[in-house]
Amino acid sequence: MSKKALIVTDETEQVKKIAMYISDALAGFTVKVCSADKFEGTDILCADVFFLGCAQSSPSSFSYIEKMLKHINLASRKCAVFTTDLKTINYLCSIVKDCEASLGAPLHVVSKEPDKSALNNWVKSVIK
Q: Is the overall model pTM greater than 0.85, yes or no?
């Protein structure tokens, strides 16, 4: 039975690109990548690991995810967040806190083209 991963983004161009790199790095996983406005709560329930990425804090498309993560226990799941904006890391980490998922180190991508090797190592550190 393959493991399942979910990647939810705000659909900004750079964040979508990072999501595709993360998806590629998840060898052995069935990966679903979706935009936050198309996210359904059941998507996260069957995921072994989930990733959340957005370019700015509190995008309107994340409002449902924010509410849901406040009221669900995902203690058995692994999670990581990624962004292109340093200030957004605190926002992403804060919305995951209440669901008690095991939060890996956040990823802050500063270049237009993410370093694939570093990104692969980051993904490995999240899923181990």
A: yes
